[in-house]
Backbone:
């Protein structure tokens, strides 16, 4: 009984990042197996949980967890290589954390934290940028 109680405590204290689903990397690198730009890897339109699959929960235009649904509120989250949160990969222009919100921290072309800023986090010459065609990009995590 004591072991069962300890197991329950451990599961309740488990960080959310350990429970998240790895969906690949947001990257312009078509040769990286984990890149969403690789049509034979994480970017495959046939991957069951892929963001490029229109029938998966993360690629369907009707799913609340989709990157393509303009009304999604539970879109996948982006994290850079250091584990820093970089917003939600979402087509929702009204979500404050969306990469599509042109006035938000993660979508504005003027914000240093935005992948849409070619002089900030989205600079294609930065090794950690998702726009670098030779980099690893940012990790995409779903629920």
Residues:
């Amino acid at each position: 009984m004591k072991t069962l109680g300890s197991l329950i405590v451990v599961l309740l204290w488990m960080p959310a990042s350990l429970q998240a689903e790895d969906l690949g990397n947001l990257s312009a690198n078509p040769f990286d197996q984990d890149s969403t730009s690789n049509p034979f890897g994480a970017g495959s339109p046939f991957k069951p949980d892929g963001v490029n699959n229109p029938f998966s929960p993360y690629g369907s235009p009707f799913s609340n967890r989709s990157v393509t649904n303009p009304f999604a509120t539970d879109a996948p989250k982006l994290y850079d290589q250091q584990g820093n949160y970089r917003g939600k990969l979402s087509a929702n222009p009204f979500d404050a954390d969306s990469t599509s919100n042109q006035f938000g921290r993660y979508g504005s072309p003027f914000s240093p934290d935005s992948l849409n800023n070619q002089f900030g986090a989205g600079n294609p010459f930065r090794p950690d940028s998702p726009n670098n065609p030779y980099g690893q990009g940012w990790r995409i995590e779903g629920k």
Notes: The chain has one domain: 18-143.
